[in-house]
Amino acid sequence: MNLIAGIVLVLGCVAGGFVLSHGQxxxxxxxxxxxxxxxxxxxxxxxxxxxxxLKKVGGNxxxxxxxxxxxxxxxLDLLSMILEILNKARKEGMIxxxxxxxxxxxxxxFTKYPKICADHHVIEFITDYLRLMVDxxxxxxxxxxxxxxxxxxxxxxxxxTAAVLTRRADGLLGFGIVAAVLGIVITMASLxxxxxxLGHHVAAALVGTLLGILLAYGFxxxxxxxxxxxxxxxxxxxxxxxxxxxSSLQGFSPAIAVEFGRKAILHSExxxxxxxxxxxxxxxxxxx
Length: 288
Fold this sequence. Notes:
single chain, mainly alpha
C-alpha cells in the first residue's frame, strides 16, 4: 500500500506541477532516454554483484508490496509459543522438548502458530538454540555470544538488498547525465537544421537528466529506505527471541523470560504483559 501511494504521489505531484505550469506531458515521453538510463543501471548492477546477491534482491523486492510481517499479532504468537515451550521444559524437564525441536512441523506446540511456522528462518533459529539447550549448553553468556554472532551475520545479509538499491540510486544520477550528454551530442550534430528539431533534441537531453534524478530520489532511494526498515523489524524479531531464551537459561521463570523478551519489542508492536499468557491459553494463534 505504501509503495502504490508513494508512486501515485510522486508522479502526480511532478506531472501535475508540470502541467499546471503549462508544460506538455508529451515532451516528457522519451523512451530512448529511459532505455539508456535503466538499461545502463541494470547492467551496472549485474556487473557489480554476484549471482547470489542478485537472486536475493529479486526475492526481496516483493517486500516492497507486502511490507513487514512482524506486527503485533506475529509477536503475540511468538511470545505465546515460547512461553508454552518454556513451561513444558520446566514441568517435564529440558529433555522433553526434544520431540518438538526435532520435528517442529509435527509438534503440537509449533503447529498452533502457523504464522511462525511459515517463517522457516525463525523456526530454524528457535529450534537450533533449543537443541543446544537440550544438549547441555547451560552458560547464558556462551549462548548469547553465539546468538550475537548469528544475528550480526543475519543483519548483514538482510541489508544486502537495501545496499544494492542505494548504490543504484547513486548510479542513476550519473546515468541521467550520460543520457543528457548523448542528447547534447545529437543536438550538436543537428546544428544548422530546423529550429524545432534542435528544440526537440535539447528537450530530450534535459529529460534524461530529469529522469535520472527522479528515478533515483523519487523511487529507488525510497525503496531502499523502506527495505532498511523491513530488515530492522526482522532483526528486532530475532532480538526478542534471543532475549527470551537467554533469560530462561539464566534461571528466570518462563513468564519472566517472556516478559524480558517483550521489553525488546518496539512500542508500536508490543503486546501487554498479560496478553501472551491469555493468548497461549486460548490454544490458537491470533486471527488478526
